[in-house]
Amino acid sequence: MSVPASSDLRPRTAFPDGVSQLAGRYDSFLLDQWGVLHDGAAAHEGAVACLEALRAAGKGVVILSNSGRNGSENEAILASMGFHRDLYDSVVSAGDDARDALLRRDEPAYRDLGTRCLPITRLGEQHLAAGLGLTLVEKPEQADFLFVLSIDAERQSVAGWRPVLERALSRGLPMICGNPDRHRVHPGGRLLEAPGAIALAYERMGGVVHYHGKPEPRIYRTCLQRLGRPPGRLLAIGDSLEHDVQGAARAGVDCLFIGGGIHRDELTWSEGDPVFQRSCEALFARNAASPTFCLQTFAWEASSQTASSAAGR
User: Fold this and answer.
1) Quick one: CA dihedral 280, 285, 289, 293, positive or negative?
2) Residues 6 or more apart whose Cβ sits within 8 Å of residue 5
3) Residue 164's Cα: distance from chain center in Å?
4) Tag placement on the chain: N or C end, fewer CB within 10 Å?
5) pLDDT digit string (tens) for 166-204?
6) Phi first, then psi: what are they for 250, rounded to 5°?
7) Distance of alpha carbon 291 from its chain centroid, rounded?
């Protein structure tokens, strides 16, 4: 395991040769989906085998996702890409975290929120806001709050939602964001808008937004409760510096950053590890980020093919 020199006071990031070198240090793992396990269409090379090795070693695994979908829908998506149910203990999603807060109504932002909800979702996914005792409406003038859960980036856009946001802002409506991701990686490699971009636009317009999912602490508390492990015995694995690395740091959990995800176009890829490592160090410095570890992809053992396949995705 190589450790880069550091000229500042940030903790140094270590670069192991695979997840196998880390498995003995931790009891349980919190795994991101997109960019780590799959690209939205197919499993990344070596991801299924890596999960199988973790489970064979007796490790707890929670899939920690910023998806607005519920756990069962995420499980079905994972199964379609070869991630069988016995490869993880449960799925904890940002959408479920938001729905739980709306059901409990025990936090200040939710106590007097009202029950008339305007869901902002893909067509046909309004059911993501159902079952919460809410009245689903179609216009801001009918709503008590907005609930952002999904976006069809091929057919919808942040700009397309702006007239609705302007009308909501004129009424001072708060927004609940059940998927804070601002971009996602298309299977073809390009970045697409994600629901968090709608929330960010509303916030910049002056609207009030209550976020769920990574990097917010609430969802990490849920994971810790489910696994029954202290933070020091967990390793979070993700590809977003803003969400995965920052969220883990806030929760006191070590983090493995995967370079082949959402930040891959900001890195230099080659079969020479020092080149990749230096580009990661520069990325971390630009973002004031300090992941505990860094790998090119989520793989049990690193290989020369890993770099080329990650760069070509």
Assistant:
1) positive
2) 12
3) 26
4) N
5) 999 999 999 999 999 988 766 666 678 889 999 999 999
6) -65, -35
7) 15
**pLDDT for position 311:** 43
- Token reading at 289: 């980020």
> Which residues are registered as beta bridge partners of 295?
258
Q: Whole-angstrom Cα distance, residue 49 to residue 82?
A: 10
Place of tokens 């939602």: 161
Q: Specify whether the CB–CB gap between 299 and 308 falls below 8 A.
A: no
Phi then psi dihedrals of residue 82, to 5 deg: 100, 5
Residues 6+ apart with CB under 8 A from 118: 136, 137, 138, 139, 140, 142, 143, 145, 146, 147, 164, 168, 173
- State if pTM tops 0.85: yes
Q: How far apart are CA 222 and CA 171, in angstroms?
A: 33
Q: Can you list the domains of the chain with their CATH numbers? A: 19-66+214-312 (3.40.50.1000), 112-211 (3.40.50.1000)
Angle 91-95-101 from CA coordinates, rounded to 5°: 105
